[in-house]
Amino acid sequence: MRHDIDRVTALRRSEEQRVAGLQKFAQQSSWLTTVADKENKADAIRKANMKARQEKEDEERRLLAEKNENSKRDLAAKELETSLLLEMKLQRDKQQAKELEIQRICSQSEELKDLERQLKIAYVNKERAAQHQEAMLMSKIESDRVARLEWQMEKDRILDLKQQEDRKREQRQKLASQKEGG
């Protein structure tokens, strides 16, 4: 019996050891699963962080490239504006120099001075001729007006004489008819 008890006890101990081993194995498996899950989550977080960092770097590179492009465009626009301003200043300076040269030549040339005097005389003569023609036109208009007025007055005088003559004739006829009747 004792032997049976030892044997049962040994079997029980063996069974307890096996159960304890299985429990230990289950705990280790659970722990390894948890560790693996945590590592997977950590990997996923690392990948997400890496992707976010990569996207941020890409965005920063894009913004930097855009900023550089804008800077280049602004610089090109400023250079163009500067060159246009310089070109305009050169053109203005050339024009002023040309005008000064023309003035200098005009002021030194006797022929041009004579021509200017002749031009002034021609303008004065032209103005006088225009004034003379205007005066002649005004004189003609006035003489036409006077002639029309005289013609109208003559016409009125003739009409008045005719009316006086008609009245005289009527009076004579009245007198004659009164003499015959009376």
Can you put this structure into words, describing what you see?
- It is a single chain.
- With 182 residues, this protein is mainly alpha-helical.
- It has a domain at 123-182.
- The protein has helices at 2-108, 110-181.
- The longest helix has 107 residues, at 2-108.
- It is elongated and about 210 Å long.
- The termini are far apart.
Biggest sheet descriptor: none
The number of distinct β-strands equals 0
Percentage of residues in strands: under 5%
Order of helices and strands: HH
Unreliable segments (pLDDT under 50, ≥5 consecutive)?
none
In short:
With 182 residues, the protein is mostly helical. The chain has a domain of 60 residues. It contains 2 helices and no strands.
Structure characteristics:
single chain, 182 residues, mainly alpha, elongated
